[in-house]
Design goal:
A hairpin with an 8-residue loop joins strand 6 and strand 7. Helices cover 46% and strands 14% of the residues. A three-stranded mixed beta sheet has the order 3-4-5. A two-stranded antiparallel sheet has the order 1-2. Helix 6 runs antiparallel to helix 9 and helix 11 crosses helix 15. By secondary structure, the protein is α+β, with helices and mostly antiparallel strands. It is built from 15 helices and seven strands.
Amino acid sequence: MKKGTSHQLYSLIDELRLFSHMALGRIETHTFNSIPFMTWPDGSPCIPANLYILSLLERAGRGGSRGLSTRCSRGGSLGEYASKIGQLIRYCYYKNIDLIHLTDSTFTTFIDSLRDEKSPIYPTSKKKSEPTILAIGRLCLTFLEFVGRLNGNPEFVAKGGTIRVTHETFTITSRNGRSIKKTYIHHHSLSLGGRTRSVFPITDANIKKLTDAVDILPSSRFVNIRRKIMLLLLEHTGARRGEISRVRVEDILNAFHSDEPMLRLETWKQGASSERLIPIHKMILSDIITFIDLQRRKVAKEFKIGKNDGFLFIGETTGEGLLPDTITSEVAALKKAAGIKEKISPHMFRHAFITKKFVRMIKEHEMSNSDEFRRALLDVKGFIAEVMMWTGHKSPESVERYIHLAFKEIAGYSA
């Protein structure tokens, strides 16, 4: 079992085997990996929370696949669910309230306590935005609905129940014109407004600052070159940090020796075996192979790893593949060394990658506004499909939100 941080109330069970059904006199089982195991702050198991997590194992994930994603060092989407309900569990523990004894007013007080939290970095700022509190609140309400059913009280969370909620329905229209109805749970303590989380691509200037900062930090040559290669892949692949951490040496070699280099990436958030191929320049691959042949080879030899085996990014003192969180820490260390004040994260490289693809398309078609561009999208679905294939997005709508960022980047282009 992998232990989490001191702030989270769950650990990850590496492998969990559960009964599925009987077939021809034999017991058939399902095996799940990286499943959160929930505890109270004192370390004792939180049985209602663990039963709720088990109930989510068969829930449809992205694309209709069975189960929520558990890929990443914190348990993926299932770990995110555990983290959110963990905040309610911690609140109830320290207030000495049993989950089933929560009331409408105590739930409201819980939500207010989330609003009162201050940022540990910027004490004058709030720790959580309203959209974040809304997401936590809705998930906690769903969890409490489960707790009510578990205790034989289906009216525990309901319209006119102990915790008074409503179920709101809205309709969205997909690109093919099909209407899809969706329902969400709502409580009067939750705000539907507030600051929304914006998507900001990292700037070319900040990428250069991060790259230049590699030589400032007092690290070994292996770590310095590894950081430069990491920045190269983040910038030129548009991959998520977890996908970057899973790149293997053989993936680099296979791409380099191809006539038209295509790098294999595992696609996170789309099931356990999803992957994609993205085009990558041979000059970048050449720099990476130099790192493999020189710096990485020495570390791999020390830990008896085959020259062309294992993950591209390995630890200098362990020989093991880097975790996604390590990539975040590396970028944060470079940001600090570079003296960059604004927010920088690995995911902002992904935003920049997608935005630049749209910038290229806008310039090729000489379009002057986003409405004109959207109309043109109907005629160039192939381009959208291509971008989705490179980025691992499931829906065109997720990609199209970068349109305004693209026009912002080329402001004044029409002249």
